[in-house]
Design goal:
Elements (H helix, E strand, L loop, with lengths): L1 H21 L1 H7 L1 H4 L5 E7 L51 E7 H12 L13 E11 L9 H15 L18 E10 L2 E9 L6 H19 L4 E9 L3 E4 L1 H6 L8 H15 L5 E9 L6 H15 L6 E6 L8 H9 L5 E6 L5 H9 L4
Parallel strand pairs: 5-6, 5-8, 8-9, 9-10
Antiparallel strand pairs: 1-2, 3-4, 6-7
Length: 372
């Protein structure tokens, strides 16, 4: 029975995975999953699947094709029955259609994202200064806790002892281990190098970035977080907002800030470079700066300064730099053209134009598709 339940559960999980994979673009575009996020899982609505079954009708109603009526007449009543004044249907007593919510772990969601978008696993840059302790079972010991008793080795020792003592009988193979026969798994603590990463999110919060643009950034950052967290053991996030000046904020402030004024992108890049230098040295961290803006900048001179900051201070210490330009009716969209002109040949720089929510999927693939 337990085996059947396990098989049914595995089959159900496969169905859910298929539904999520089939509707992934829709889930990403509407941002519905973000509101359903828990600590380690996301609640996903999937169509409820009913088990097929026979339904028996009233015996007095006759069989199929029996009774009065001509071919083409409505079955079970007059045409239009069930609608009252104004086209409103009468209250019914049948069951409605409901969506079933299934909890899917963020790791599993990341796996589905990677499979659907064909994202390569990230090749970590060498990190030898960060270590994690891990227990590793390496051998067998004569002493240890009962929870680590090695049953196969214990019975083997008992069998060897009984055979050597002439106590073993092939016609009655009874093996009774003694205290001296007991064997236990032994272990040692290994320190292994692990790869840590930090995601530095930067967002333009000037007057030309409205709620719709910020919602696009919020949705995309959720999926970027989900994918990168599946690739690294430890990961941190830093949030920077900027208009004419830049400031580090918490996650909630990052997505809820309402500001106005001009835009000086270099202020964000300066703060990003300072944070990288002070807290995330490149010999210990994989660094992922992401910048989202509508493409407006204060001046040509500031754009020149941005390019220089990226070349000299950001790119040498980052795995890659990703710029997502969110389309806005108030933004000029010039900045992405300038980046492509000056840094388009650098494979560490990835740019993406995000015209609307439907373009988020393609933007994620552009950013993560290189496996850096």
């Amino acid at each position: 029975m337990a085996l059947n339940i396990s098989q049914d559960h595995a089959r159900f999980r496969d169905i859910v995975r298929g539904k999520v994979r089939e509707n992934l673009r829709k889930y990403i575009s509407n941002g519905e999953l973000i509101a359903r996020q828990g600590k380690d899982t996301v609640s996903i609505p999937v169509p409820q699947i009913d088990t097929p079954r026979f339904r028996f009708g009233d015996k007095s109603a006759g069989g199929v094709g029996q009774g009065e009526g001509e071919a083409g007449d409505p079955v079970g009543g007059q045409e239009g029955e069930g609608e009252g004044e104004g086209g409103r249907g009468k209250a019914g007593q049948g069951e409605g259609q409901h969506a079933l919510e299934v909890d899917v772990s963020l790791d599993e969601l990341a796996q589905i994202l990677g499979e659907t978008l064909q994202l390569p696993r990230i090749e970590n840059r060498g990190r030898r200064q960060i270590f994690a302790a891990k227990d590793k079972y390496t051998g067998i010991s004569r002493v240890g806790p009962e929870s680590l008793k090695h049953f196969k080795r214990t019975f083997r020792e008992a069998l060897k002892r009984q055979i050597a003592a002439g106590l073993y009988k092939a016609d009655r193979p009874i093996i009774v281990p003694t205290r001296e026969d007991r064997r236990y798994k032994s272990w040692q603590v290994d320190t292994l190098p692990v790869a840590n990463a930090v995601i530095i999110y930067m967002m333009d919060v000037s007057g030309s970035m409205g709620d719709e643009q910020k919602e696009i950034v919020r949705i995309e950052s959720f999926w970027l977080d989900t994918w990168l967290r599946s690739q690294y053991k430890g990961i941190e996030s830093v949030y920077i907002t900027h208009d004419a000046a830049a400031r580090e904020v918490d996650r909630d402030t990052f997505f809820r800030t309402r500001e106005s004024g001009g835009t000086m992108i270099s202020s964000a890049y300066k703060l990003c470079a300072e944070i990288m230098k002070d807290r995330y040295p490149p010999d210990e961290w994989n660094v992922y700066p992401f910048h989202f803006s509508d493409g407006d900048n204060w001046s040509v001179d500031d754009t020149t300064l941005c390019v220089q900051l990226l070349k000299d201070r950001v790119l040498p210490n980052a795995n890659m730099f990703c710029y997502g330009q969110v389309e806005s009716p108030y933004g000029s969209g010039q900045f992405i053209k300038d980046l492509r002109e000056h840094l388009g040949a650098d494979e560490r720089v990835v740019t993406s134009e995000i015209r609307d929510k439907d373009a988020i999927v393609d933007s994620i693939k552009a950013f993560m598709g290189k496996g850096r």
